[in-house]
Each structure stands twice: as structure tokens, then as C-alpha cells.
Amino acid sequence: MASEPVIKTEGLTKVFGRYTAVDHVNLELQRGEIYGFLGPNGAGKTTTLMMILGSLAPTSGSIRIFGQDLADDPFAIKRRIGVVIEAQSYYDEMTAWEYLMFFARLYRAENAEKRARELLERVSLWQWRDVVIGGYSTGMQRKLAIVRALLHSPDLLLLDEPVASLDPYGIRQVRELLMEEHAAGRTILISSHILSEVERTTDRVGIIVRGKLLFEDTMDHLRRRVTGQRRIQIELVEPANGLATELRVLPFVSNVEASGQQLMIMTHDDRDYRTDVARAIAGQGGIVQQMRNIEPTLEEAFITITEAEAQSWAGAAHGG
Amino acid sequence: MAASLSLPTRQWFPRWHAINTIRGRSSTSIAYGLGIYITLAVALAAASVVLHNTVRYVERNAVLSTRQPLFLPIAFMVALVSLYLGMSAALSVARERDRGTLQVLLFGPVDETAFLLGNFFAQLQVYLGVVVVAVVWVNLVTWLLHLAFSVPVLLLLLSSIITIGAVIAFGLLVAVWGGRTRAALVYFILIALLFIALQLGQEVVNGIAASPNLTENDPIFLIRNVLGYVNLVTQWVSPYAQSSRTMDDLLNQNVSSYFFHLAVTFLQGMVFLTASILILKRKGPRG
Question: Is residue B252 assigned to a domain?
Fold first, then answer.
């Protein structure tokens, strides 16, 4: 029997006056996965997170966390969640250590001092533990928020822009921490604009635009869905004179772009055609120096999906 | 067994843990600040001056102006400390909401009830410390001035805990209702001072109106009547009005009335707290 989803929303809707911020969102996070929750500014990501956390009441729809309604046992459910929000706030007058110990007591974290030390060392904040948070840089504060969210070893992590304002070194530290938590079986939802980071860490993504969840699937399916074809980049030993025309007639090729010694071949999506392409080139007397599949980036996929939605919305608005 | 407990009962154990953790943090924060020590020092100094004046008046005029010379100084001290603690309660809640830390707390195993009760008990805990200092001060001055440390003095100090509780609860109510930190602070000070002014005003006017030199048409009687009507209404919402009546009951040894006014003060505190929780739930952590 499949295990219960960690988060399951059905028809989740939030209306503010005449504005629908979240529109019938059905979200499902399975145990142990990293889920990227993406969307342009004002798409409804934070509103969705706020509803999941019980901070905003939905206009309609249901939310189940660990198979329960949050209202069934809010204290027990919230103890199993670690949260970092985008507009994170701190007790500026507290030292990092006091801050973490306060939250450790609140969450009844086990071995809190040992865990806090380990986490602080991992993000290079251990030597700053006795400095008041008001003296921290924005990046240090963000790392502290992540440490706080991980301190009680939660089963579910909800992270809104976890690497915002971090330097590349800090981003790597946080990424490594999150991957370790993932390996330990924790479920993680990341909402972020830093798509390269989401691409590196997530198993599945959901794209929300204007309150509607337009897409929810694995990264691989997202790429396929966007292009509907595979791209093979080839570098030849000599310029591809006339080779492009020959390749275009192959039944599995949809398009070929040639530039000097470079060829970009778009093939059907049903399988990997690299061997067939190599044979065809060799048949025409060409010599392949390098050949690789080019996957569309998450950024390309994201922009394609969100732009299509924006165009359809504009079209509908224009059409009345 | 947890499974056999009803939902509200099951929630009170983790809620109590949250209350206790927030209480610990807030009371430590107050104890590490200078404000409470300055307030206590000023309150004790003011109480000492009032007591000194009372004793000198008795000595000079050979008239026993009051049966309990310690009552007025203690009332003075309680009023000053209550103002500080009520203000501190209002500030701590309004600041948490303003800077967004309340939202972070509420994402965790804390609800609005636990947050407000934690802050309430923190201030009350600090006041218990003030009561201990006040008992030491009372012992010291009674020993120095050869006054009696009577049971009513002790009862007055103990009943002041309920008064202070109501004022703190009022501070919390103003904080959740008043919006931003500065607004909450201004509202609290204005309303608390109004309550105190009405209370003191009526006593002063009553004193003037008792003068035998006044005619029936003197405007002071009109002022006395107006203040009397206003106080008739505010006594149900002002912890200071109830505190004044409790003090009168102790002076007159009216036990049933004493407990009645104490119960009213307790009820005021409960109403303020309940209203604070409901308003915070309705307005949310960002106000």
C-alpha cells in the first residue's frame, strides 16, 4: 500500500475580496521527496504555504498534513515541521545560541545542544554563536533560520527562498545540508526563484501561475513537456557542408540547425537517437568529434510555461 | 493514555509547554532589562515619601489621619509598577507582531492562547518578585517607624497580584487591538492614566466637597456628581477602581465586599485575556 502523502491539498482556494490568490490547487508531496514549488512573483506560492501552515484560513478546499487536518492536532503536527519563510524575522537582542535554545525548548528538540553545534559548524556560524543576531549580516541570519528549522529534525521542511541573500559558498553549504536531510528521509518543499538551485535539488516541481497549479511532475517530464523533443548537439571535425539537408529527411529528425562545425539536431522524444544520428553522419562522410544530449533548463521550461499562461490570459482578457 | 484524551485536553499539555517556554524567555528578558529596577526604585522612593508625609502629619497634628498608614504608599507603588508591567506587556506583544517574530512562533507548536498567556505569566512572575521586595520594604519601614505589620497590609499586597494581573491583561488587549507598537503604547498609557485620574480625581473632589465652608450651589458638587457617574461605569472596566474599593474594604474590614471586588477584578482580567486571544486570532500575526 502506498504511504499517505505528507501534504495533500484538494481544491485549495483563497480569495481576497475580488482577487483569487490561490485557485483550486491540488498539491501532493510524497514522503521523502524534494518538491520545488515555483511561480512568478504574486503567483500564490506564499499564500499556499501560509494556508498549509494554518496561518491563513482557506476560502475553500482541504489540507491534510501527515494524513491529518492541521486542526486535529496542531501542536503535534507543527512540531514535525520546520519552516523558513522569505521575510524571516529574528529576536535581534538574542545571541544565536539563545535563539536556537529557545526554539529547541519550544519544539522539545532532543540533543538540542549537540545538534545545534553540528548545524552551526556546518554553516560556519559556530564561532558567531554568542553574537547578538542584530549584528548578523542578512546571509548569516538566513543560515541561522535554516539551522533553526532543522534543529528539531522535522519530518517536513517548508522552505520559502532558503538560499536568498546567500553567497555561493553559503548556497553550497545549505544545499549539502538539505541533501543530507533528504537522504535521511525528510520531505522538503522548496519555494524559490533561484531556479538553478531548484533544478539541482528537487525531484518534482509544481509551477503555479495566477493561483493555478499549471504543472506538477518530475523534472524530466517537465523538460520533455516543454520541448516535446530531444536535442542533440554535435561537433564535427570539419564544417557540415550540406549535411544538415541530408539529416533533415531522416524520419526521426524534426529539425537541424547548422553553424560551422556545430550541428543541433531535434529528434522525436520516443527514444535516444544518438546512435542513429552518428551512423547517418558517418554515412554522409562526416566525422563526429563530440556528441551530447542537450536538456532544456528549468529556467527555459519555467519561462515557456509561465509565458504561455500569460499569453492565454492576455488573449482571454482581450477577447473579453 | 494520550489516545483516550479528548482533543482539548490533549492540546493543553503541549500548550502549557509553549506557555511555559514563552514565559521563561519573556521574564528573563524583563529581568535583564533596567526598566523594572528603575520603576521599582522610583515606586519604593515614592511610597517612602508618601509614608514619611503621613507619619509627619500624624506627629505634627496629633491626629490619626488613617488606620493603615501603609495603604496609600503601597497603593502608590502598585499603581506605578502596574503601569510599567502593563506597558511592558503591551510593548512585548506589539513588538513581536511588528517585527514578524510572532508569525515565526505561530508556525511552530505555539498558538495565540499560548503566546498571550506566556507573556501574561512572564509579567505576573516579575510582579511576584516585586511583591517579595515590597514585603521586605514594609518590614523595614514598620521596624524603623515602629508601625504595625498588620494582616490587612499583607492582604493588600496579595490582592494587588490580581489587580496587576488585570492591568497586564489590559495591556495585552491594547497591544492586539491597537496595531503598531507606538500606537499600542500610547493607547495603553492614555487609558491607564485616565482610569487612575478618574479614581484619584473623585477622591480629591470628595475631599474638597466635604469642606463645611461650601454652599449648596458650589460647582464642586456638580463635578463630584459627574465623576461619580463616570466612575460608576468605569469601575466595571478599570482594575484601579476595583483596587481602590478592595482597599476600602480592607480598611473597613468588610470581608464579603473585599472578596466580591477581588472577584470582579479577577473577572476583568479574564475578560481582557479572552478578548485579547479572540482579537489576535481574528486579526492574525501580522495585524
Answer: yes
Cβ atoms of residues A232 and A265 within 8 Å? yes
**B19 interfacial to chain A (CB closer than 8 Å):** no
Nearest to B14 among A56, A76, A87 (CB): A76
- List chain A residues with CB under 8 Å of B101: 89-91
Residue of chain A minimizing CA distance to B109: A75
Does residue A12 contact residue A58 with C-beta atoms inside 8 Å?
A: yes
Among A106, A144, A159, A189, the residue to mutate for chain B (most B Cβ within 10 A): A106
Contacting residues of A for B25, CB less than 8 Å apart: 102
Whole domain around residue A255: which residue ranges? Answer: 228-320
Number of domains within chain B? 1
- Each residue's pLDDT tens digit, A190-212: 998 888 888 888 889 998 988 99
| Cβ contacts of A199 within 8 Å, gap of 6 or more | A36, A219, A297, A298, A299
Per-residue pLDDT of B34-45, as tens digits, reads 999 999 999 999
- Take residue B44 and report the three cell numbers written for it: 519604593
Q: Would you call B211 exposed, middle or buried from its count of C-beta atoms within 10 A (0-12, 13-18, 19+)?
A: exposed
Q: Is residue A1 part of a domain?
A: no
